[in-house]
Specification:
By secondary structure, this protein is mainly alpha-helical. It has one domain. The chain has 6 helices and no strands. α1 runs antiparallel to α3, α4 packs across α5 and α5 crosses α6. The longest helix is centred in the middle third of the chain and has 33 residues.
């Protein structure tokens, strides 16, 4: 691959991944029933509402799972994979596209959880007050961290659950092709 192709693949991947992260956080916020009056939540909703709202009218949510957001995540991942594969290989098979789209969507969700837990852990060390960002991260990561906390409580005042969760999420991302 020529240098300009590497740069183009990087730009395509970065632009698509940034918006996929925003969609993923919208999905996680809805799943965890986070506070919709939080400024960070409002920012994420405003960035994603133009594409999610029309689809939501046709495809309703299932309990606290935003199906329209998840559908857009699949579509955007498929477009990203198609563009990169056509650029690199010149062609793409439907079976590869379907499996890579599903794997890519799962990986972006796991990656978003990974970064949310990591940022929350760092904020817990340096931040003394309970900020809106920490509150949202706490709500997003609670479904992952709380089951681990029930098994392994804090030891000597130190909570090792974020470390265990980060290792587990990283292992899952490695297992996904």
């Amino acid at each position: 691959m020529r240098p300009w192709e590497h740069a183009l693949v990087f730009l395509i991947s970065t632009i698509f991944d940034l918006y996929l992260f925003v969609l993923t956080f919208r999905l996680l916020l809805a799943f965890s029933r986070s506070n919709y009056f939080n400024p960070l939540t409002q920012f994420i909703i405003k960035l994603t509402q133009p594409i999610v709202a029309p689809v939501r009218r046709v495809i309703p949510n299932y309990k606290n799972f935003e199906t329209a957001t998840f559908l857009w995540m699949l579509i955007i991942t498929a477009i990203k994979i198609t563009l990169i594969t056509l650029l690199v290989l010149g062609g793409i098979s439907l079976l590869f596209l379907v499996t890579a789209t599903i794997a890519g969507t799962i990986k972006i969700i796991l990656s978003a959880l990974f970064w949310a837990i990591l940022i929350q852990a760092i904020l817990s060390w340096v931040q003394q007050s309970y900020s809106p960002i920490y509150q949202i991260l706490d709500q997003i990561t609670a479904p992952v961290l709380n089951p681990i906390r029930r098994i392994i409580p804090p030891i000597g005042g130190f909570d090792f659950t974020p470390l265990i969760a980060l290792i587990g999420l990283q292992a899952l991302m490695i297992l996904i092709p």
